[in-house]
Amino acid sequence: MRQLLDYCESHAGTIVETIEALVRLESPSTDKAAVDRCGREIAGRLRAGGARVEPLPRDARGDHLDARIDGTGKPVLLLGHFDTVWPVGTLERMPLRRDGRRLHGPGTFDMKAGIAIALAAIAALRDTGTAHPPVHMLWTTDEEIGSGTSRDAIEAAAREAAAVLVLEPALPGGALKTARKGCGEFEIDVHGVAAHAGVDPGKGASAIHELAAQIAVIEQWQDLERGVSVNVGAIEGGSRPNVVAEHARAIVDVRAPTMADARTLDSRFRALQPLRPGTRLTVRGGFERPPLERTPAVAHLFSIARDVASVLERDLMEGATGGGSDGNFTAALGVPTLDGLGPVGDGAHAAHEHVDVEQLPWRAALVAGLLHRLASTA
Questions:
Q1: Exposure on the CB side of residue 166, measured as CA atoms within 13 A
Q2: What is the mean pLDDT of residues 51-75?
Q3: Which domain range does residue 99 map to?
């Protein structure tokens, strides 16, 4: 373990150089040409590190990257994405810059530094001759917009894996993520009957009034103490103040800590019925990502990581988050999944996005050490 840390510390400059190279190749999810440029850079670095790389072509989104390195035992999946929320040109107003121990730039924290950490971990294992399991890496291009073109590949890879290590950013202070909420979105579409609001209001049925009544109902389903949130984030409807609204719509974000909670919310939305005569409802949507629950298998995987960190003379904590990742999919299959193994920093999706450069080597050593331990426990 110590030689892995020594290696990563002596190659800290390479980790930073990799992050900078990837950040300069801006890669917003919806710009296939830009994402594929970044993907070619990653593929080249993977091949230089001895991986067999197979692009997974997609028409409307960037091509995902499937990379494999031989080892002993059942494979371990390293999972992450290289698409970002930032449009091309963001570097002009959010330049890549170093400020003391902070490296700023769009996509540094979420999550190009995670890819750089994984590459450094693989290099450390290879160059020190340290045993490891077969490593299967899947770097995707649409995580920020729901993973619609990558979910099948993620789940197929996870089913073959002994464990999944997700290189998403760490929680504050470097804690790993052993639980994530399930994430969903529902649309409530209300149709009413238009009428003149002054002359014939009784002949109308307001879609807006019906939608307001429905919102009052679904608000009661929120239970923040248990981690269940229901947020009406967008509404629209009506045409003019003097017209009884014929149509209204709401989009609702929902989060649930367990599959049982997710199923309950889903059934409640689908059971909604009109509360006012003359109106009708259409409910669409559902949970896009199932919860990542802290199962005994997840807890055991974290205990292995904590032991590795202890050997590296670091304290490693765990925690939960309300946001989802592709690790939600793998955990829902029953595959032990550990998330947040990427960089320490702050500002995902924000103007102050940055990583802590001084923490990068030990995070790479943590991933390398965890892979080594998984080889010996497989």
A1: 32
A2: 97
A3: 2-180+292-377
Q: Which of 265, 289, 313 is the last residue of a domain?
A: 289
The total number of structural domains that make up the chain: 2
Contact 298, 319 (CB under 8 A): no
pLDDT in tens, 149-181: 999 999 999 999 999 999 999 999 999 999 999
Element counts in the chain: helices (H) and strands (E): 10, 16
**Among 245, 250, 210, 204, which residue's Cα sits nearest to residue 230?**
250
Same domain, 167 and 107: yes
What are the E-state strand segments in the chain?
A: 52-56, 64-69, 76-81, 97-99, 102-104, 135-140, 163-166, 176-180, 182-191, 229-237, 247-256, 280-289, 318-321, 337-338, 345-346, 354-356
CATH number at residue 190: 3.30.70.360
DSSP 8-state symbol, 225: T
Taking only Cα atoms into account, the Rg of the chain, rounded to an integer number of angstroms, comes to 24
Q: What is the token pair recorded at 153?
A: 């590949």
Residue 212 to residue 348: CA distance in whole angstroms: 33
Residues 6+ away with beta carbon under 8 Å from 369: 1, 4, 308, 311, 312
Kindly tell me the sign of the dihedral angle through the C-alpha atoms of 288, 294, 298, 303. Answer: positive
